Each structure stands twice: as structure tokens, then as C-alpha cells.
Write a sequence for this structure.
């Protein structure tokens, strides 16, 4: 069944010139990019988007990192999009991914546990929350430009 998920190329991915290769990987694996936008997140965006992590010790650093430069947000669509995009990006920590999932996106373009190049929604519930955080969807399913 066709579904949608949210992908983000994070500031380290954009500044490290990984945008085109990550998008190629996405398309090669059968995803459609339904909508995309380069945006500069501010502190309020990041604190709200990552609210579930607000009590973690890494949160202040995460906010600084995610506001450090533009990100590319994309709505991806295909059958099993949520799980398939998570599988394609690999483990959260790129240093572990290099060992266990060497062909994953994070193994290839991530730097460390924080600067891990890309984001993917971790569940259907997260996907719908995260897509509607950035984009509007019309009743017919059309996605329009972001925040
Ligand atoms: P992501 O899975 O997109 O969402 C939470 C982000 O917090 C994660 O990627 C990393 O960029 C960052 N992060 C930093 N430290 C940690 C940690 N110890 N555990 C999980 N995520 C972390």
C-alpha cells in the first residue's frame, strides 16, 4: 500500500554536498519525491519537531546543529515508504552503520551520532505528524509548500 514518509537532509548533509547523491539513492529505490523544500529551521521549529527528545542531554546540541544551516525536507512516497526509508538510511550512529550497514545512507554520508546526515520518520504516526509539521496536504492528497 502506498504511503508517505518525511525525509530530511540535515545541515551536515547539505553542506557536505550529499544532497544530489542522497536524492539519487532515493529515486533509485523507487521512491517518488512528492514535494521538497530547502529551509532554514529556527530554534522554535527544532524544539517543537524534536519535542520527544527535549529532556535528553544532547537536546541543546541537537537544536544548535539543526539550526546551523539549511536542510532539505522531502515527502517520499511508495509502498512501505516508512520502513523502507528507515532501512535505507541505516542505524542512527553512522560509525556503527559503517560496520553493520556499510551501504546505508548514514554509513556513506554521516559523520557521527549527532551529525548523521539524514532523518526518517520512525513510524506511521511520526510520519503523519512530521509531514503535517512542514507541509499542508489538501483533502485530495496534494501536498503544498511548507512552513
Ligand atoms: P534522528 O534519529 O533524526 O533524531 C534525533 C537526533 O538526535 C538524531 O537523529 C541525532 O541527530 C541526534 N542525536 C544526538 N545524540 C543522540 C543520541 N545519543 N541518541 C539519539 N540521537 C542523538
Amino acid at each position: 500500500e502506498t504511503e508517505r514518509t518525511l525525509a530530511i537532509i540535515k545541515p551536515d548533509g547539505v553542506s557536505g554536498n550529499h544532497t544530489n547523491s542522497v536524492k539519487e539513492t532515493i529515486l533509485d529505490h523507487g521512491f517518488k519525491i512528492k514535494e521538497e523544500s530547502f529551509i532554514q529551521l529556527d530554534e522554535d521549529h527544532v524544539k517543537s519537531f524534536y519535542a520527544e527528545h527535549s529532556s535528553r542531554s544532547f537536546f541543546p546540541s541537537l537544536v544548535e546543529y539543526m539550526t546551523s544551516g539549511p536542510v532539505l525536507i522531502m515527502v517520499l512516497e511508495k509502498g512501505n515508504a516508512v520502513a523502507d526509508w528507515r532501512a535505507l538510511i541505516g542505524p542512527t550512529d553512522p560509525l556503527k552503520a559503517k560496520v553493520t550497514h556499510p551501504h546505508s545512507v548514514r554509513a556513506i554520508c554521516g559523520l557521527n551520532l549527532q551529525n548523521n546526515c539524514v532523518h526518517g520518520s520512525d513510524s506511521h504516526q511520526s510520519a503523519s505528524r512530521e509531514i503535517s509539521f512542514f507541509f499542508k496536504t489538501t483533502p485530495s492528497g496534494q501536498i503544498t509548500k511548507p512552513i
